[in-house]
Amino acid sequence: MNKWGLTIRAAGITLALLAVKVVVEYLNIDTLSVSTLVTAFIGGAIFTIAIIFAGVLADYKESEKIPAEIATALRTMYSDLALVRVADNGIVPRMRRNVCNLLITINTNFRNNTWDLQLVDRAIGCLAEDISRLVDGNVPPQYTVKLKNELGTIDKLSHRIKTIEATSFIPAAYAISELATAGVVLLLLLVRLEPLFEGIVIFSVISMLMISLLLLIRDMDNPFETGKNSCADVDLFLLWDLEEALVKKEEECRPAFS
Predict the structure, then answer these.
(1) Which end of the chain has the smaller Cβ count within 10 Å, N or C?
(2) pLDDT (mean) for 233-249
């Protein structure tokens, strides 16, 4: 479905438009003739959508890096805690559980197809308090500073995910792409394409191309829609695998937030 789901949806819309085209042909409403102006308009519309697609693709490629950076930061924090020596023997195991809880909170948000920033901030706050206790326990600065830097990276990426989820890529650009697609489809409906069989093939190919690009742009705008019927999501397998590994090490670790 990830590979062909969007194409299938576009094909369904194209079939519906093809039925309309057949009716238009039957009623002899298609009075426009093929000209250089028509072909120029279609080419310009495809070029416009391609530019918008390139902009969305750049944001998507940035989003692909986020899961790996979160997983690396969490794994580094968890492993670095093994080097910490402090008088309070309970603080390091508690911090490891809090790292695991933070990971589970992040993954739960992804699985629920939402991003509750308050829950993530709460889990980050627990670890920040633990790092403060390490400072009070005279843990060497190189350890506490590194832990704080990794936690800051996770906090930054968390807010970036929230921004991606809550905002859209230039709403005016979406309006232009939708108008361009609608204009091309309407023009193809009213243009007489002869012979009929070749006309149907040309209409189907161009319409499906435009609709597929429009659907893909919409889908790529939020690359973290795990669990939804979407086809262009960032792969989160690194976070799933890391959660499984840490939970095995910390049997007492359970989701802090449902």
Answers:
(1) C
(2) 89
Whether the CB-CB separation of 124 and 154 falls below 8 Å is answered with: yes
User: What average pLDDT does the segment 93-97 reach?
Assistant: 90
Among candidate residues 138, 170, 186, 136, the one with its CA nearest the CA of residue 58 = 170
**Per-residue pLDDT, 252:** 54
* Tens-place pLDDT, residues 57-91: 888 888 889 999 999 999 999 998 888 888 777 88
The rounded distance, in Å, linking the Cα atoms of 157 and 154 is 5
CA end-to-end span of the chain: 29
In a domain, 225, yes or no: yes
Domain membership of residue 255 (yes or no) is no
Q: Is the dihedral of CA 46, 51, 56, 61 positive or negative?
A: positive
Q: 174 CB contacts (<8 Å, ≥6 apart)? A: 52, 168, 217, 218
Supply the mean pLDDT for the chain.
84
Asked whether residue 58 is domain-assigned, the answer is yes
pTM of full prediction above 0.85: no
Q: How confident is the model at residue 112 (pLDDT cuts 50, 70, 90)?
A: confident
The number of folded domains in the chain is 1
The identity of residue 51, as a single letter, is I
Q: Assess if residue 257 is contained within a domain.
A: no
